[in-house]
Amino acid sequence: MVQAKVIQKSIPHVLKTIDIPQLGKKSQGKVRDIYFKDKERILITTDRQSAFDVILGHIPFKGAVLNLLAAFWFKKTEHIVANHMVSVPDPNVLIAKNCQSIPIEMVIRGYISGVTNTSIWGSYQKGERVIYGLKFPEGLKKNQRLETPVITPTTHGGGAGGHDERLTREQIIERKIVPKKLYEQMEEATYDLFKYGSKLCERHGLILVDTKYEFGKSDGRIHLIDEIHTPDSSRYFYSEGYEERQERNEQQRQLSKEFVRKWLIDNGFQGKEDQSIPEMSPEFVQSISERYIELYEHITGDKFIKNDHSNALKRVENNIIDALKRLG
């Protein structure tokens, strides 16, 4: 585990954003800065911490954890479905194939969970039993394993106010958001990826609770894009003690961004415009960093290598330029 003093020392040098004018116009997401080339896109995963569609602050080493963990999973799952990864020239950088994005997020859930009112557990707790067009039985408890995993798709930021819109499988096909055959391919890949990810996590003492996958098209076939099984896109429980906590109706121990959402809610913030964003203390920032690193080490079995944050901007830029020269 990265020592606390190393994380604290790195707080002033987090990677907030990066500008490389010679790469052209930059597109900026909540966490990633993206540059587009003819055949590739350059994804720079920063240390920005987001929740409820707002930037809360910056977490040392978070970007590297997300990027390297996604690269680990892309390599592990390429036998299931093609993905957009070309190379990883820097801990914070992934050079990817420039795929045409498909505007559906494939969210798959093996457990009924969540802390927000819009989560699947939030809906169930309010008395809903048909959610995303799927019928859920009576008597479920929070964080209980579902009989079989379910897919609860959403638009990708396409709903009212830019928020994701809940959809059913039938709505996607009827509205022709995605052709039926293409959706079926995404659906099959989603089930297979989740099954494989769940088994690998189980071997490492973790439960893959739920996650989301994004897909794109290139060369006439679907590709997995964006990220896979990171703590930003997935929810993880520890396997040890899971059953005992369920029996006692206790919160599960987690390794994911969910505890950040819970902290925000406990501090009176749920992303509404009239709410002020609570400030993260250095101690809380450190705890987030430690959890991200712990998840990386848990899943990969490798020690997380802490790069010197003080020269991150120059290091990232140099590694990108060198990689592009090699690609020609």
Tags for this entry?
single chain, about 325 residues, alpha+beta, D-amino Acid Aminotransferase, Chain A, domain 1, 6-stranded antiparallel sheet, 5-stranded antiparallel sheet, 9 helices, 15 strands, about 35% helix, globular
Question: What can you see in these coordinates?
Answer:
- It is built from nine helices and 15 strands.
- The protein has 328 residues and is of the alpha+beta class.
- It has one domain (4-327): ATP-grasp fold, B domain (D-amino Acid Aminotransferase, Chain A, domain 1, 2-Layer Sandwich).
- Helix 2 runs parallel beside helix 8 (282-300).
Which of globular, elongated, flat, extended, rod-shaped describes the shape? globular
Q: Would you identify the CATH architecture?
A: 2-Layer Sandwich
Seen as an oligomer or otherwise, the chain set is: single chain
CATH topology: D-amino Acid Aminotransferase, Chain A, domain 1
Q: Care to give the gist of this entry?
A:
The protein is α+β, with helices and mostly antiparallel strands.
List the helices and strands and how they pair.
Blueprint: H1 4-10, E1 26-28, E2 32-36, E3 40-45, E4 48-51, E5 54-58, H2 62-76, E6 85-90, E7 93-97, E8 100-112, H3 120-125, E9 130-131, E10 134-135, E11 144-151, E12 154-155, H4 169-174, H5 180-203, E13 206-218, E14 221-225, E15 234-238, H6 242-247, H7 258-266, H8 282-300, H9 312-327
Antiparallel strand pairs: 1-2, 2-3, 3-7, 4-5, 6-7, 8-11, 8-12, 8-13, 9-10, 13-14, 13-15
Helix pairs in contact: 2-8
